[in-house]
């Protein structure tokens, strides 16, 4: 089994591709995301409320990631065929739970009255259909499964690591070993961004 090193908490900020892109795009947003909580001038409750806002595209991505993680963990126990009805019910229940428990950007800023499963299931199902019907998934089931005891699927925590002694956050979606090679797969549901995604994978590899 691949082991993930754990580190004690320190308040020192670390690098991740998400944090880096936020800093480059909007330093004001970066400040409120990571520094304002230490500034007594700003009300922590308001900051926390805004930081917890999510969006329809984000939750589509979250549910797709969590569902694929569940599918892979199921593969560790069984290679039996996935029952379509039970699978659909599982995804719908997850969508219902996520929509009920989170505050959406679209609702907070009054773009929509509410966000429910009907608003996100189409996008979720499109992504999951593509994954389950892909040659990559068949390859995982037919070949990568042989090394399943070394699979690392969505490890807990934030993926904290060290590169040359500096703190970084590089949490992989799926890592496994096949034919002596380490393979890293990262699921994407948004637009392709070659440069951003390449930097992210470089961080994982390092």
UniProtKB/TrEMBL annotation:
UniProt cross-references to Gene3D superfamilies, sorted A to Z: 3.90.320.10
Domain PD-(D/E)XK endonuclease-like: 15-204
Protein name: PD-(D/E)XK endonuclease-like domain-containing protein
Organism from which the protein derives: marine sediment metagenome
Organism taxonomic ancestry: unclassified sequences, metagenomes, ecological metagenomes
């Amino acid at each position: 089994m691949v082991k993930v090193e754990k580190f004690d908490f320190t308040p020192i900020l670390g690098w991740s591709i998400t944090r880096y892109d936020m800093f480059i795009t909007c330093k004001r947003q970066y400040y409120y995301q990571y520094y304002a909580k230490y500034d007594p001038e700003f009300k922590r409750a308001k900051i926390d409320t805004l930081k917890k806002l999510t969006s329809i595209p984000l939750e589509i991505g979250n549910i797709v990631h969590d569902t694929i993680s569940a599918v892979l963990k199921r593969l560790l126990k069984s290679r039996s065929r996935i029952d379509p009805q039970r699978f659909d019910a599982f995804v719908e229940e997850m969508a219902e739970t996520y929509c009920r428990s989170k505050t959406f950007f679209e609702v907070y800023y009054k773009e929509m009255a509410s966000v429910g499963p009907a608003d996100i299931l189409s996008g979720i199902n499109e992504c999951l259909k593509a994954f389950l019907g892909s040659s990559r998934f068949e390859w995982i089931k037919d070949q990568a499964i042989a090394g399943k005891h070394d699979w690392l699927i969505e490890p807990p925590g934030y993926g904290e690591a060290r590169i040359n002694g500096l703190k970084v956050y590089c949490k992989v979606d799926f890592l496994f070993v096949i034919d002596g090679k380490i393979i890293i797969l990262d699921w994407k549901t948004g637009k392709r961004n070659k440069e951003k995604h390449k930097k992210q994978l470089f961080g994982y590899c390092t």
